[in-house]
Amino acid sequence: MKTSRAEAERLLAIGEKLLQSRDLSSSRDFAILAQEAEPLLEGSDQILAIVEVLLAAEKPITNDHLDWYAILQVDRTCQDLDLIKKQYRRLGLLLHPDKNPFSLADHAFKLVSDAWAVLSDPVQKAIYDRDVAGSVEPESFWTACPYCYFLYEYPAVCEGCCLRCQNCERSFHGLSIPSLPPLVPGQEAYYCNWGCLPMGFVFGNLGSDGPGPGPGPMVENGPTAVAVSNGVNVASRKRGRPRKGV
Ligand SMILES: [Zn+2]
């Protein structure tokens, strides 16, 4: 019968192999399993530290900006330099290539060092915070044109504003409707009708992003509340109610 330690070592060896092949999520799973089997087993926390840092680095905030906060595993609104320093020290100890024998430890260590270089310097941190501030996905709400029942998603700042329907061109009050239209046909529901929209109507100002493969809502990134004509376009319309004025 296997001891829990032998089992933990087996799991950790798998996690290590997965890390070598850069299968980060699976590597993490096995490191966690190893840790659960034998909490004192050396190495599982080192693998976890590498994987968490590399996974955070895979999700940059913009093309130019890695998410330094996620890399140090602190909240993006964190202003607590002591906490940031504590995280840097903890991860630095776990990841230092002299101490951490696993693949990619050097890479993760460099990321943590770079994160600390930015976030520990008030000037660099302020510039970074400013640069990424506009990139956080804006809050939005859904509203419906009361005349033609087209649905729109707008930035939250437009809520309560007078909006202009891009379908029937009438003005209406931008009242929030409680929830996203369900994308499942068959219920007393809304359904997505991307396919029914004339080419160029919906996607005209979305640039290279284009329509995704799925029916997800398209969110206009522009922050202006008044640029109604640049607002988000129709995602769906109400079933059973014919459009008017098309
Ligand atoms: Zn309308």
TrEMBL record:
<dbReference type="InterPro" id="IPR053052">
    <property type="entry name" value="Imprinting_Balance_Reg"/>
</dbReference>
<dbReference type="InterPro" id="IPR001623">
    <property type="entry name" value="DnaJ_domain"/>
</dbReference>
<feature type="domain" description="J">
    <location>
        <begin position="67"/>
        <end position="132"/>
    </location>
</feature>
<dbReference type="Pfam" id="PF00226">
    <property type="entry name" value="DnaJ"/>
</dbReference>
<protein>
    <recommendedName>
        <fullName>J domain-containing protein</fullName>
    </recommendedName>
</protein>
<dbReference type="InterPro" id="IPR018253">
    <property type="entry name" value="DnaJ_domain_CS"/>
</dbReference>
<dbReference type="InterPro" id="IPR036869">
    <property type="entry name" value="J_dom_sf"/>
</dbReference>
